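Continuing the batch. This is chain 6 of the set; chains 1 through 5 are on the previous pages. Same settings as before, nothing changed between runs. Recording input and output for traceability.
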Amino acid sequence: MIFDAGVRAVKRDVLKLLERKDKWYLGGGNRLLWTPPFPNYLDFPGAWDFVSYFDLRIEPGYTLSVINNGTPLDFSCADRLWNPAVLRSVFNSDGLELVEEKAVMKDDFLGSKFTLKNTSDRILELDTVLWTAQPCSDNESESDTEIASIIKNGIAFKKRLCKPRRRAYPAYVALVMEGLESYNISFSERTGNLPNFRLTPFYEKLSDRGLLKEVKSDGINREGLLYIGLHRRIRLEPGAHIQFSCGLAAAPTLEEASSISSKSLETDIAKASRDSWEEYFNTLPYFWIDEPFLQKYYYYRWFGLRLFTTSVEESYMHYPAVAEGLDYFRAFITYSAQCHILETRWAPSPEIAHGSLMNFIQNQREDGSFAGHIYINQLQENGFYHADWGRALLELQKNHPDPAFLKRIYEPMKKYLEYFENVRDREDSGLYDVVDQYETGQEYMSRYTSVDPMADRYGWINNIRLKGVDATVYIYNVKKMLAWIADSLGLKEESLHFQESAKKTKEAVLKLMWDSEEMLFSDVNPTNWKPTGIKAAVCFYPYMTDIVDESHLEGLKRHLLNPEEFWTEYPVPATSVDDTLFSPWAEWKSKRHNCPWNGRVWPMTNSHIADVLGLCARRFEDNLLKEKTVELILKFIRMMYYEGDLARPNCFEHYNPFNGKASTYRGVDDYQHSWVIDLLFRYLAGIELSQDSLIIDPFPFGIDFEIENLIIKGKELSVKFLNGVLQASYSGKTTRAGKGERLELII
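Output for chain 6:
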């Protein structure tokens, strides 16, 4: 990104801004993804590490071998450069340079554009073989491969994709190569499944006439590896080079896979991917921030959102939405959907924000609850997550009001609330049950063992009971949302009913969850109706609502801003530092866990707590809370860079509260389980939306910024904050404010 005098942006090149050498994730915003968390074969041409089709694995992908006079050449990787659109790798062998530009296209083609250059002083006669080795199995719980047909430029095969405890799902894969001359399909007993040409049948079956054009895909049983090879011969004069493309497509039908692969070979794969990503970034709100870490992270988060977007209507997935992350997180998950609504409401279209809820409504259970996970081939049968639908949807309506959408979701969300009234509050208390440690999305905490010492041993079996402060706040917000929707639809009696129900919950929270001596909200044990007293970050969630008043601020400051509890060097741990089971090392009872919430800093928690501070700062005009909002957001975003390196942003599941180091051992980067874009717009830029007005009152970051192409209620908003002077243009009208003043616009 190039700036005029460090202030005005004259050119936006987001791909260049995000460029780095240590990353490899590729996606086009649809079914296919290449994000192996622990890749073993980055230093080999092609994509041998598994390819994700939704959250299912096509494993391996493919590789390219180059053979000179029957001898496979061994390449070494000399350089690698990544941006969201293309991974460029340079490989060298004796007298030969191979440059690969790899990309995942938006129509589900994982392709490689190869440039092969003769760096020697002799003519080279080379054979190139694009190949894969796909597992076959008689066991219906394991992946299998069936040959479909020979197609233009390659071979298509059918995959049975399997995951434990899930139904198998079929997909067609087309492996193609530009300039194809010969092919071979051979069935083999298993051996090392490595990108090593010498292990393949092709090592012996390649002659000066190319590969044997034969198909041998059967044997005495189905156990083995199906080798699929595509061949072309290349002649290179000294100093000459040649370019060709190859790769694989995946789709639900043979016809679609064949069509995608054929069209993709006719394009410049690298250019098409760059054009697609540039088009995406250019449609987003332009946000120049005169602070390098915040600037880069703004666009980096938009990259992550598109990376994990799925945009097809297929099986249980009906609307465009964002998956939580890579590999097994590549599903629509209720707990993270609230984040995606808050983030993508700042996009020019509400399509993905709407889809983030509509997929769950489309698959709503009979009792009114939502499945915790929506996979392409199955709904999670026994899983559930609590989520703050109410607040997220009300915020979305401020950016993109849509009466038809509200009418569409009203009855399903009423049914959702009825589930909580009937199943999660059988005492009619106004407080709502958490029944296992997983459904809050926050497992391994003292919250649960305080009511059942065995809570950390149970699975998704609904074996505990805890009146959860987070679950209750979320349902309070659903009630407030339904009251607002009912009123907007002219349903006055229903609106009053939900208002009264919300009032009941508010009173119950204040009466039963608030400890006036400790000055802290906490969960309630329904066996004695007393607060558990466990200090967790969720105890601050009522501060995001109108449940609290000014009298509660002392408790917020006493606990949240205390370095001995939550205000660590990298705030905010999900469990207080003085908890008996606190661990900064991701250890629960002496063992490192994947997803512990007993002391790690989770971006999801930080997003909530930034809003706790920011919303209270605004509501109560509290300057200290404004300063702490700024401090938290700056530390939060700085934490999500490897060792403070501006070139290497990340977003892992959790971090150490004292040294800020990420859970890299999980291999789960770009985890879409928090909101950052929303925080930057609302606090750095100070944009506060209501149904009929827009206030711009930046928090004291002391950072210049400029916003363009931000669509609010169908009209463009531009904002400039330079040297403390604020200016905004909305719907063609420009308004200015003096230093230290805020702007208020009628919208």
